[in-house]
UniProtKB/TrEMBL annotation:
The keyword Hydrolase applies. Pfam families: Abhydrolase_1. Coiled coil: none annotated. It comes from Amycolatopsis rhizosphaerae. GO terms for cellular component: membrane. InterPro entries: AB_hydrolase_1, AB_hydrolase_fold, AB_hydrolase_sf. Keywords: Hydrolase. This is Alpha/beta hydrolase. GO terms for molecular function: hydrolase activity. Residues 21-242 form the AB hydrolase-1 domain.
Amino acid sequence: MDYSRHVVNDDYVRVGTGGHVVLALHGWFGSANAWEALTPHLDGDRFTYVFPNYRGYGARRDVAGEHSIAEAAADVLALADELGAGRFSLVGHSMGGSVMQWVYAEAPERVRALVGVSPVPAAGVPFDEQTWQLFSSAADSQESRKAIIDFTTGNRHPGHWLDRLVRHSLDNSDPAAFADYLVAWARTDFHDRIAGSDVPIKVIVGEHDPALGEQTMLATFAQWYPRLELEVMPDAGHYAPDEVPVTLANSIEVFLDEH
């Protein structure tokens, strides 16, 4: 199996040729290419992983849109149709966890399983005023982006690692779209649409994520999804795809193999 990335078109990256299609949705600081630390460890014989860009990100940086969770989810479903994927699983990192759940709410019969990696709950995320000011300033501030990544990974990583994630974010997101998406993932509440769902779902959080960690998941996902499996991953904060890619890939695929 050739594990190299295959850029199919400007909308997404595809890895693998397996029969189980997995749509992997990136976070606020990410893009379709942000998963590159994870992709060498994925089993492309059993799975086909597709990594889309939202409007305003990556190769779709100049694509106009309203930059809402609903719009991103509609684009994901349109991509699934384009790929001929009648049924598929979803992986969502951070903001992608909110998009993932909206896709499920729109087309539950098409979703085999959900895997959230430090996912944003379907009720959004509450902020105090000081934290909101920091996050709001990140659209135009490299320093704010770095401070957010440092905080959400437990202030544990060297500056050059933080700088790499910041640079990827700056290079792969339109500032206006980036600002819009903050409001979208933080303040979109649709948990009433998914509460009580019987979809197989696993949520993986980092031990060192102070915001979207175990307690947040117990107060949100665990209340809405009766079949939830929750895993706390040591040595990870909010960016497990970059921090512990081998461990994360195995955790995702062991769960997806069951469904």
